[in-house]
């Protein structure tokens, strides 16, 4: 149990502070610690009370002004309560002031601490005394908490020393999972009895027909035993749109706001209640049915963050059509590639969108993509186009009358009720293309029932959702986060969701907090890259807004580095809001490893523990499970309801990529370590995928785009550390014989990638490589390229196996060209 915690200010303590001419004394629990400023340094005296006679003899230590950080540690004992350790950390000091954090640890369960800021004239400010008692056993079973470098919610994480943040009793008492015990109880049941655990949750949704109770889940994850197959709630008939809208309206929440839409330009906004959203979805469903879209047909959606994007997804789901949303930052080539793969009857788009001040002509991109896919034998008969008036007028839009239809001309004319198509739990819901380690993106296929139950449940627990919350996720519906945690997860819970069309730094870096205050957002879910980019600006952009509505913060897309975590926690959340650092993937459909706010202490940078029903394992190179504290490859032992069921049209690739590397397990492609307390720390991709601003990009995709340039014969792309984006794209290019490298060529190579994939995949650095380091069998040694790219030249390792070791020196010499 995480037990008794209490805070009270030092100043109110009867054993407070005394000031003397030669320094001052500071007391915690009747033990007087004396600080003196002498000869440009601070000295500190900690009394030791001898057990037998209760007499004290001081221990002395001093700050060292050149080092700037001093640690006084001693073991002291008293009659009253045995003190195991006194730890004083100098947070900051100068000739005129000293800022210390002092902690007395009585036993491993109980400590008292405080931080004090003292000047030569006396004490300026005092922090709080803190009692943190914990009897917690970590969910991992790692044992008792071994150290208490802890702070509580509500208090500033003042230094690297604090590596645990405890929820306050006030937060935990109201949380859905209020204690570690409760989590453990639920987690244990979820893995011992998945059918019972998930069956009970699924029963809270509407099912036209119940699933086969004997077989809630059937799975084979082991390629050695046959085809990989996952099924949940098979035989059950339901509809996710019905559960996300009709069920909420039927429960009496029709007038509750479902979507708050905030436009790119401040002041332009809109909102839709659940009832209004349902009406709009039904109109579009009726239209789609009318133009011949049937159950199982694919519909491609290429829209920015307008309400019409979730409306389109829900309308497809209502009639059993399979939506495939393509992020509206992808180029015409990428869109065409996806259209060719899934062959939709209809593409839904809009004429343009404003991103900051810049209009992006989406319809033109769709036109090009449809032409390209027609050249490849896939024709699209209908392009339903929404007029996004704030960005572009109808009249200015290029039009092909026999194929294009204005949304506003047809959809509003249809009835606002539409019968639901009841589908099997295992019928496909959507396809979402994601990058892998080849040039061809993978069509990740999710089905209906398991995904619905999983998206809703993970949303509810990981954000400790309450009906009064206003929730904002900054992700675009073009990515999985926008599917599970802008649209389906929150709507299935009847939440009020903010969706934002614009850029987070437009018109300035305070926009996010302006939106938070405008809608009284309580749960704010974003990506580390956004946190890092805002962190570079003045804190004033944050602090000028109140943000008092915020309750829970969330992070996704890549590991959040502890310093970004601290800034997010201290500055954005005013040290008041837990952060749910949610690890998951397009393939997993929902959260896999995530904090549950209120149930256990958090560590900055760790995704903490597995969600219900998820059994993560860390394996070594050979696929052996490693126990306890370790690092390795992150795999999952069993299926979970939100798992993807196949890669569209390529079940072999599904098995090869995810289930063959470590037979018997689902392989995530991520590296991971687990610390002594059992906390999971994701360390990034271990395959040829880079994660740029939380967007997955295959190195092979960028390479294919580069070699399409007529002057480039070969390209090798690696990821490098990037201060804001997490990873940046570093491309080595070999040019056609006789072509000289120039600034102009550099720009045109980058343009080639923008055109082939999209602006977000543009390389940060092009490195001219007359030759690439290859083995004698012709394999590019990316390990060496990574070291050259990150300038770790002393770590190049053995290069003797290269066909031509001289290329390494040549590449190093060309680094700054
Ligand atoms: C949801 C999403 C998945 C990859 C995944 C991992 C990285 C996502 C993370 C994280 C560390 C987190 N990732 N969340 N790494 N901590 N909280 O982003 O899906 O676009 O498929 O990317 O993103 O590397 O494998 P997707």
Molecular structure report:
- The protein has 817 residues and is α/β, with parallel strands linked by helices.
- The chain is built from 20 helices and 45 strands.
- The strands form twelve sheets. Strands 1, 7, 8, 9, 10, 11 and 12 form a seven-stranded antiparallel sheet that branches. A seven-stranded mixed sheet has the order 19-18-31-30-32-33-34, sandwiched between helices. It has a five-stranded antiparallel sheet with strand order 2-3-4-5-6, with no helix packed on it.
- It starts with a strand and ends with a helix.
- The N terminus is likely disordered.
- Bound molecules: ligand 6R9.
- Ligand 6R9 binds next to helix 11, strand 39 and strand 40.
Summary of the model, kept short:
The protein has 817 residues and is α/β, with parallel strands linked by helices.
Distance between the termini: 59 Å
Number of helices: 20
CATH architecture annotation of the largest domain: 3-Layer(aba) Sandwich
Helix content: 25-40%
Radius of gyration: 29 Å
CATH homologous superfamily title of the largest domain: ANL, N-terminal domain
CATH first level of the largest domain: Alpha Beta
Number of domains: 4
Uncertain spans, ≥5 residues at pLDDT below 50?
1-32, 46-83, 106-110, 122-136, 143-148
Q: Assign the CATH topology of the largest domain.
A: Rossmann fold
Strand count? 45
Shape annotation = globular
Q: Which band does the percent of strand residues land in? A: 25-35%
The biggest sheet, with number of strands, parallel, antiparallel or mixed sense and barrel status, is: 7 strands, antiparallel
Structural class: alpha/beta
Family: Belongs to the ATP-dependent AMP-binding enzyme family.
Domain Acetyl-coenzyme A synthetase N-terminal: 183-244
Catalytic activity: (E)-4-coumarate + ATP + CoA = (E)-4-coumaroyl-CoA + AMP + diphosphate; acetate + ATP + CoA = acetyl-CoA + AMP + diphosphate
Protein name: Acetyl-coenzyme A synthetase
């Amino acid at each position: 149990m995480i037990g008794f915690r209490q805070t009270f200010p030092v100043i109110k303590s009867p054993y407070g502070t005394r000031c003397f001419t030669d320094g001052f004394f500071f007391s915690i629990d009747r033990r007087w610690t004396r600080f003196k400023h002498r000869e440009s340094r601070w000295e500190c005296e900690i009394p030791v009370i001898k057990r037998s006679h209760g007499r004290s003899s001081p221990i002395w230590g001093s700050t060292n002004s050149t080092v700037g950080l001093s640690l006084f540690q001693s073991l002291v004992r008293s009659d009253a309560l045995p003190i195991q350790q006194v730890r004083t950390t100098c947070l900051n000091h100068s000739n005129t002031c000293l800022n210390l954090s002092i902690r007395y640890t009585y036993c491993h369960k109980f400590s008292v601490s405080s931080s004090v800021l003292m000047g030569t004239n006396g004490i300026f400010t005092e922090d709080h005394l803190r009692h943190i008692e914990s009897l917690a056993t970590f969910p991992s079973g790692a044992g008792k908490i071994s150290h208490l470098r802890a702070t509580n919610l509500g208090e500033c994480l003042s230094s690297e020393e604090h590596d645990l943040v405890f929820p306050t009793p006030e937060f935990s008492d109201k949380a859905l999972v209020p204690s570690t015990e409760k989590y453990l109880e639920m987690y244990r049941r979820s893995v011992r009895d998945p059918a019972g655990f998930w069956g009970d949750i699924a029963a809270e949704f509407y099912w036209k027909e119940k699933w086969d109770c004997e077989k809630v889940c059937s799975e084979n994850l082991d390629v050695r035993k046959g085809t990989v197959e996952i099924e949940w709630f098979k035989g059950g008939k339901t509809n996710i749109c019905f559960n996300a809208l009709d069920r909420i309206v039927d429960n009496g929440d029709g007038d509750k706001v479902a979507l708050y839409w905030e436009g790119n330009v401040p002041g332009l906004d809109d909102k839709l209640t659940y009832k209004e959203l349902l009406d709009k979805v039904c109109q579009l469903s009726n239209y789609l049915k009318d133009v011949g879209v049937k159950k199982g047909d694919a519909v491609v959606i290429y829209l920015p963050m307008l309400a019409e994007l979730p409306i389109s997804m829900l309308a497809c789901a209502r009639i059993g059509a399979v939506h495939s949303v393509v992020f509206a930052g992808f180029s015409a080539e990428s869109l065409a590639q996806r259209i060719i793969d899934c062959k939709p009857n209809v593409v839904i788009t809009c004429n343009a969108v404003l991103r900051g001040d810049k209009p992006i002509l989406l319809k033109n991109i769709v036109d090009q993509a449809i032409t390209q896919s027609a050249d490849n034998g896939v024709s699209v008969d209908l392009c339903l186009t929404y007029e996004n008036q704030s960005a572009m007028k109808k009249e200015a839009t290029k039009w092909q009358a026999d194929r294009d239809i204005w949304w506003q001309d047809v959809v509003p004319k249809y009835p606002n009720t539409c019968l639901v198509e009841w589908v099997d739990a295992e019928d496909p819901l959507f396809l979402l293309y994601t990058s892998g380690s080849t040039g061809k993106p993978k069509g990740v296929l999710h089905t209906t029932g398991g995904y619905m139950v999983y998206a809703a449940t993970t949303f509810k627990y990981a954000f400790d959702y309450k009906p009064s919350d206003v929730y904002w996720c900054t992700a675009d519906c073009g990515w999985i986060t926008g599917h599970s945690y802008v649209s389906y997860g929150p709507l299935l819970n009847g939440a009020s969701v903010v969706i934002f069309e614009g850029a987070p730094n437009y018109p300035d870096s305070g926009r996010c907090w302006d939106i938070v205050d405008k809608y009284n957002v309580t749960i704010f879910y974003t990506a580390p890259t956004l946190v890092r980019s805002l962190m570079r600006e003045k804190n004033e952009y944050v602090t000028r807004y109140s943000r008092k509505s915020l309750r829970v913060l969330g992070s996704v897309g890549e590991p959040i580095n502890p310093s970004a975590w601290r800034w997010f926690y201290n500055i954005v959340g005013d040290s008041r809001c837990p952060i749910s650092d949610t690890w998951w993937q397009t393939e997993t459909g929902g959260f896999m490893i995530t904090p549950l706010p209120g149930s256990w202490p958090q560590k900055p940078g760790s995704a903490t523990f597995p969600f219900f029903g998820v059994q993560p394992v860390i394996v070594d190179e050979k696929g052996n499970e490693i126990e306890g504290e370790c690092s390795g490859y992150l795999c999952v032992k069993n299926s979970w309801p939100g798992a993807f069921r196949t890669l569209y049209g390529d079940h072999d690739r599904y098995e090869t990529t995810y289930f063959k590397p470590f037979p018997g397990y689902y392989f995530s492609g991520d590296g991971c370590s687990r610390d002594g307390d059992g906390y999971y720390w994701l360390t990034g991709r271990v395959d040829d995928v880079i994660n740029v601003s939380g967007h997955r990009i295959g190195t092979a995709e960028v390479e294919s785009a580069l070699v399409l340039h007529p002057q480039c014969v070969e390209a090798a792309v690696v990821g490098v550390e990037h201060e804001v984006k997490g990873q940046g794209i570093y491309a080595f290019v070999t040019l056609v014989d006789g072509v000289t490298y120039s600034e102009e060529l550099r720009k045109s190579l980058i343009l080639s990638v923008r055109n082939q994939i999209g602006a977000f995949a543009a390389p940060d650095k092009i490195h001219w490589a007359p030759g690439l380091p290859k083995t004698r069998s012709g394999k590019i040694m990316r390990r060496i390229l990574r070291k050259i790219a990150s300038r770790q030249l002393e770590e190049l390792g053995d290069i003797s196996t290269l066909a031509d070791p001289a290329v390494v020196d040549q590449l190093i010499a060309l680094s700054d060209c």
